[in-house]
Amino acid sequence: MILQSFKLLGFLDVKNVPCARESVLYGSLGSLVLGLGHFLATSRVRRSCDFAVGGFIFTMLGYWFYCRYNFAQHRIRQRMLREGMKNKILFEGSSLDPERKQTGNERSNS
After folding, report:
1. What DSSP character marks residue 101?
2. Which of 23, 25, 31, 99 could form a disulfide with 56 if both were Cys (CB 3.0 to 4.6 A apart)?
């Protein structure tokens, strides 16, 4: 049995796109809170539905940008760490090793 991923609006693959699932879930929660809150405050059904749709869009896009920004920062940190580990392995024990203590002879030669 092959599991097919869920595509929101036909193009947003919720399973494989980072932050998509969380954005939809937080958008749904924002929609519920804003729509229900507006309905309890005003008892106007149509306007409350409008607020709910607006709350969904606003919350989903807000969390989408927040999550993607953090995801990009995380990937940059991972790349820097990977380069640092590669350089550590490459320079370990050589004269370019920053952790290696240089003696007086080595300082005067370089």
Report:
1. P
2. 31
CA distance 5 to 21: 11
* Of the candidates 17, 9, 22, the residue with the CA atom closest to the CA atom of residue 61: 22
Q: CA angle 4-6-8, nearest 5°?
A: 150
* Spatial contact of 31 and 59, defined as CB atoms under 8 Å apart: yes
CA–CA dist 73, 83 (Å, integer):
15
- Give the three-class secondary structure for 12: strand
Q: What is the DSSP letter of 96?
A: T
For residue range 17-35, what is the model confidence (pLDDT) as tens digits? 788 889 989 999 999 999 9
Residues in the chain: 110
